Every structure is written in C-alpha cells, then in structure tokens.
Amino acid sequence: MPTNNANLFATFEAIARDAGDATLIESGNGQTLSYAQMLSLTARYANALRRLGVESGDRVAVQVDKSLQNFCLYLATLRMGAIYLPLNTAYQLNELEYFLQDAAPRLLVCTPANYLAASEMASRNGVAHTLTLAADGSGSLNALIASEADEFATSQMQAEDVAIIIYTSGTTGRPKGAMLTHANLLSNGRALTQLWAFSERDVLLHALPLFHAHGLFIACHCALLSSSRMLFLDKFDAAQVSALLPRATVMVGVPTFYTRLLDQPSFDAASAAHMRLFISGSAPLLAETSREFLQRSGHIVLERYGMTESAIISSNPCSGERRIGSVGQAIAGVEVRIADGDDRPLGCDQVGGIQIRGSGVMKGYWRQPQKTAEEFSADGWFRTGDLGILSSDAYLTIVGRAKDLVISGGYNVYPKEVELAIDALPGVLESAVIGVPDRDFGEAVTAVVVRQCPDLTSDAVITPLKAQLANYKVPKQVHFIAELPRNAMGKVLKNVLRELYGKPGTAA
Asked: Read out DSSP for 458-477?
C-alpha cells in the first residue's frame, strides 16, 4: 500500500495493518508475535523513547541479545524518527566506549549483566539514559513500556533522512559510521523481495544476529515487505536448523551455516524438500562447499554480494542461472562497474576495482565528510575496495579485497585493529594479520608475529586478546617468523604471507 510518508516504517505499517493477525515472528522459545501485535509493541516502545526525550535524528545505541523485543525496538526507533545504532554483543567495554563517544547517542540499551559497567561508561560520555533488555524480553526498558499507549503516529520523514548508522572500518583509522537512509533501505528491500520472490506464503528461517546488516534488515525487510513469517532463532544451531527446515521455505545465512549443515548426518534432500531457497552472503562461499551442498540437498545456494555501505549490491537470480563462484548481477536500483586505479571503466573479463552507484548507496560516513568524499570517484561512484571481474552477461565475480579486510564467519575483521592489540603485548616486536581460507568460517583470522623474546607462545598472544577484542577478531592461529616480508617502500607483503600460511595444515 503506497504512503506519502518516506519513513520506512510507514510502508511496513501499511502492510502490517493488512496482514493483521497473521504471524510475523515465532521465536525459538515459543513466543509468537503477529503483525498487529508488532504495531502495538512498536507504538509502546516509540512512546517510551519519546518520553525519555529521544527526538527525530537522535541516536539509539543497542547492544543486546537477539529477541523479538529487540527487533521491535529497532522498528520503533524507525517509527519515531530516531536513528538506530546496532552494536555487536561481542564488543568489549573499551570498544563500546569509542562508539558512544563518536555517535553521541541519547539512549543506550544493554543487557542486564552489562548494566553497571555500561551505564557508568555511558554517563561519563554524555549518554542521557541507559536501559536494559534481556533475551527473554525482561529488563528496565520493558518495565518502562508497561504503561505506554499502544498507538503512535508514525513520524513524518524525508527519504534522505538517516534511519540506521552501522559502523564499519578500513584497514587503518577508527571505525566509521555508515549512514543508511529510509530511501536506501526501502529501495534495497523492495528489490530483494522481488528478486528473491518473497510472498505471504514464505517462512523465513532466521538464525542470524540482529546487530549485523545481514540479519537486521537484509533478511527481515523481505519478510516485512511480503507479509511473510519468520522463525526467529537465538543463534545458529545446525541440529535445530536441520530439524526446522521442513517448516521453512527460505533460509538466509553465512557460509558457516552451510558447512555446519553439511556436517549434520540428518541433512539431506528429504529434509530440504520443503525449502525453495537457500541464500548465502557476508563472506565467500567456497565452490567445493556449494557443490557438496547441491549434491546433498539438490539446492544450489544463492550467493549475493553486499556491504555495510550499500546493503545488497548484486545477487544470483532466484529463477535463472545461479553461477557457482559468482555473486550474480547488479540488483534493481544499483549499477556496478569495474575500474582501474584512476577510476577509468574497464571492459568485460578484466580485473579491477568494484565500484557502485544507485539508490542503495549510503548517504555518507557519520561526521566524516572528508572520508566520505575520498571514497567516491569524481563521477560519483563508490569505491568498494573489492577487486572483481564482470562477465559479458554482467555476472560479477569477486577475486580479492584491495583493503585486506578479513571476513570470518560473516563478520568484518580489520587487520590494523588486531595488529595494534598484538603489537602492544609483551614480547612482540611487530605483527601482521591476514585471513586464510577456512571451510567453517570462510576465512580464519591468522596472526604472523615477529618475537622479541624466543619463548613467546601462541597462547601468550591469544589469551590477552580475548579480554580486549570481540571473539571473532581473535586469531585462530599464530605463526612466528623472523621478519615480515616487505616491498621496497617498506609495506608488508600480505600476499606473500597468505601464500606461506594460507594452506590447510601449515605449521604454527
């Protein structure tokens, strides 16, 4: 149903009113939420936020476990015109503080277990309120909404108003907040809903976290825009997912999901017979995994390509050739080109930088206009930092990453952050962090370290990092080397390190 309000939630609201008592979410612990109940719950959250003094454009930072209440808090933030700021639950306090300082949220919502430390830090950094939300829906936030009305007039927004800030980074510098607008998200969601043929008959198996673009909106918006249902699991458990497949029609996931499904003896063509679509993204799916999945299930996993700054860029088709090893063609509203180092377009089958433009590309980086300008070419194309090839029929294949980003289990790991933490450890002279192919994680974070003292061990590197960094950033392996390979300009040759340590079974 069309709406004159550019607020993304206004579109969801119109669809939800038509869907009424149809189920939107069925959680792993047995809770259910209908479309009508979602409208009531988001209204109460929106009223509570407004009562706390949150206004349009204010940031609402959320670092909590996945729940249907968490999802409705996201929708309520959109509904009342504030900006949602999802934060990885694995972030340690020292990592959290940077986001609070940079984004300057008016409200922080955290888990009850983290309340004391997080609220003290938030107060010290000018955050007006800290509330709690637990995985079961309890906490001070839900106590606050108990007396709130279940009606709320959805805020009038402009298409270019920012809806979400998600932090990303390069190989150097501090994380950057990518600003995605209401128009960005609606354009991307509509294109994917059509491309992936979502309808009200679909049941989406959702085992992704809600602090990541993939789980928060790439998957969920397709369900909302098609008035379909979601099976909402707290986390991915291969046995549970395999058992639930006969109740689902679509699954979105990262390569790790598919390798772990293949490890389940119960997973076969019969268990996948009710499914119409398996989708993978956030990291490369190894060709051998895709072929094994096809042999076992009869399904070709649909690979797509996206990034925080633009959501989905390209996708293999739902109907048509799903080309193993390719991430498909540009989706509606997005253009893709391959360019050389001077931003000059290259022809078919030539390797170059992947550049994009279109309705899904972010508004810019939060409070970093100079960095935003640096990432765009003079003629308005966003440089993704990835290297790729476009075939004559416009299928895109990614061949590498110019920025040495590591994607492990679907999460971005920025080597410089990990290297700085390693270099500060006693006994370390210097380090380099790379990603090496891994069947389970897509890439495994791997550290190559030059020791100051010969008795430094892998455990002595890894153990202190676990207290400083989110677990997915901590190296799975540490290799020791006499000196790091460098070019004539002194730059570490990470391609050489990947050649040395990128093969399975390489000794530490």
From this structure: HHHHHHHHHTTS-GGGS-SE
Residues whose CB is less than 8 angstroms from the CB of residue 496 and which lie 6 or more positions away in sequence, other chains included: 485
Amino acid 25 reads I
Report the Cα–Cα distance between both ends of the chain, in Å, rounded.
59
Mean pLDDT of 158-166: 98
Cβ atoms of residues 130 and 119 within 8 Å: yes
SS (H, E, C) 101-146: HHHCCCEEEECHHHHHHHHHHHHHCCCCEEEECCCCCCCHHHHHHC
Q: Is 151 exposed, middle or buried (0-12, 13-18, 19+ CB in 10 A)?
A: exposed
- What are the boundaries of each domain within the chain? 8-157, 406-501
Show the tokens assigned to 125: 């950094």
The 10s digit of each residue's pLDDT in 459-491 is 999 999 999 999 999 999 999 999 999 875 567
- pTM as predicted: 0.86
* Structure tokens belonging to residue 118: 């997080």
Amino acid at 134: A
Residues in the chain, total: 508
User: How far, CA to CA in Å, does 199 sit from each of 9, 32, 190?
Assistant: 19, 20, 12
453 class by beta-carbon count within 10 Å (0-12 exposed, 13-18 middle, 19+ buried): exposed
Cα 71 from Cα 74, distance rounded (Å): 5
CA 495 – CA 170 distance, rounded (Å) = 18
Output the CA angle 107-111-115, nearest 5 degrees. 70
| Count of Cβ atoms closer than 10 Å to residue 120 Cβ | 12
Q: Tell me which of 3.30.300.30, 3.40.470.10, 3.40.33.10, 1.20.140.10 is the CATH number of domain 406-501.
A: 3.30.300.30
pLDDT of residue 504: 55
The dotted CATH code for 8-157 is 3.40.50.12780
**pLDDT on residue 169:** 58
Q: Whole-angstrom Cα distance, residue 238 to residue 259? A: 9
DSSP 333: T
- Tally of CA atoms within 13 A in the half-sphere of 390 that contains its CB: 20
